[in-house]
Structure prediction request, 735 residues.
Amino acid sequence: MSSVTEAKPQANSPTGPRSEGGRLWQQLLRVGFVAGRGRPGDRLRFWALIAAAAAIALVALATVVAAATYDGRTARNQARGPMITDQKQDAVALWREAFDAVGEVQHTVIYVDPLMPGTPPPPGLVRWPAPGEVMLSPELARQGRHEQIAGRYGTYAGSIGKSGLVSPSERFAYVRPAQPPTARERESWFHITGFGQPYPMGEVLYGRPLSQVLLALGAMTGVPAVALLVVASRIGSSTRDRRSSLLRALGGSWWHRAVINVGEAALPVAAGTALAILPMVAALSVDIRIPLTGYLLNSDDARSAVPMMAIALTVSFAISLAAVVLLHRVDRDRKTTRPRSLSSNVPRWRLVGCGLGIAAVVFSQYVRDVPGLLVFAVGTVVMWALLPSVAVVACRALGSAIAVRGFRTGRPGVLIGGRWTVAHPGVIVRLALAMIIGIGLVCQMQVWNSRLGEKAAVARAAEDQLGDRVVSVQSRDITPAVIEDLSRSLPDGSHVLTLKSFPEQQSALIQGTCLALRSLSLPCPAKPQEITSNDIRVSAVTSWYGPALRIQAISSRLALDELNGSLLVITEVPGQQAEIEKAAYALIPAVNVESPGETWLVGAANKGRLNNWTLLFGSLGLALLLLTAALSGAAEFARIRHVLAPLAVLTGSSAIYRSVVFWHLTVPLLISTAIATVVTAWHSLFFIAMVQEGSFSWGVLGAASLGCVLLTMSVGVLGARTAIRSAHQWRPTAD
Prediction:
């Protein structure tokens, strides 16, 4: 190129400097384009760049869609928010918020009662519900079908439109009482002048800020995507090395090398970026349900972000292409672009550090509360980060034994595989790191998701034994007349008791008729009397309302303490809560009907749903991490495959390649998987014993380990096929 620049054409020539430079750039781009689809190593890089560009583009699109979704949620929640007023004469409707649950998932119930004709209904409704009618969100109607949710609050009159829901998967209900609220009941209602003011309700109450979502997306999925891009960009081959040397010999600068790299990577990067559009096409067409979370993505929000999606795709394409150019580095000797392998000697500090990490995990049991969890977390990170080095030491020792055995038995594949395991542990470290972190991450997420908390664990145990044979009914509007009406409308075999709790004294007083008390095998004392009973229903009451339980038989009408009282509906057989709720809601608007401990189970379920997002982002990141490790292993094997190629002439068989790959890659990685499985099982069980809650799933551990085994076998098969194909194409050269 320096020679070309020395012979400068005339300025007025049609082939002047500008034309000459234009042809040069075009030629360099064509060189890069052809080189990107050349030899097997280049083809591996081609497909790796497609995968990396698709991952980067998907993360960019997910970021845009998340921001648009939050904007849409905020706008719709504001549009339906009540405009509360203290000036009752200006009010156009009465409004009241309540909560209920279906399948341990809480939903919002809004009671409305218009005061003036012609008042616009809330967003999402074509009209106000008539007295005694209810309108449900589609998701609530679908999920609550088995609990007869359509008839729980009144007569089902239709669905709430998307404009009245923060998301299509929101569980929401509008109810209009059959009778207007009395003057006494109106004390619990708000007077409103319309809708259009921010008010936290529905899904908004349990969501997380956008910053937290983007942080989780970036840390758990974005970082592995960047790692995949780095590995894909640096997958090298002899062709790239020779090309770089030739460019330097011709006087080419890093700009010329950059142009060739752009031509080489533009097609796969563009293809990967285009692939990321496919899931977005579905999101733009219909409301799609995001896996693991059950969340329905609003297609209207996605369509509103189309311009930003185009910008995000352009930026992700530019970032991917820039990474390829910037990461095309040469060694200090300026002779190769290949990444260096780790030394065959594992530094001693890694082994010592791994031991210290394990010691920190063990020591954490002697430190209480948050400091103990911090010590456990630090020890876990250190252990996971340095455990692959321990696996490499074990594999190197095994490699030495394998090489000795191959030498004694005269099996060249075993001999070469063992010696390569000793001499080149770098590929094993990278693959083992991905598998160890993957197994540990999956199992830790499972353990954390299984943690319910002490109260939730007690509630779960009570539900498993008791079912819904004890149901609490709470409201400030329960009068003696309502109690009598409720008793008459309950299913056969049900009895109503009143309960007054004394939290300071950890005691409770149950009052009821003799018939109701005897259904629990209790006596009928005229005065409060402390008792004990073996009935599981009585045990549930004492566990939630106080161990000091007293009972009293009442012959007159039952009355309820407004501050510390509630009704208890006792049934002999489970499965009648839906009928009890229907009867209660028909008499008392905004009543709270739940089984003991249901609040704790609802809270635990809400925590589990939030953890599902972590599981989603972590699973995607883990998949990218494993793909990165597999590509790294394949690239490492492609780098040294030319060493194996001449063996075809010496042995006369391609079976040696499978043997070398099996003993160099498959066996050491299987050992690493076994070590990771054992350590993860100990680590998870130790954590459960330390915090004394949660459960460990051997099935999850088995599935994660099986996935790593399949990855190991896939890497081995890929390496063997690459070596065999290279051997068939090998010709002796002077290099």
Remarks:
- Residues 29 and 263 are 4 Å apart (CA to CA).
- The chain is about 60% helix and 10% strand.
- Residues 598-644 form the longest helix (47 residues).
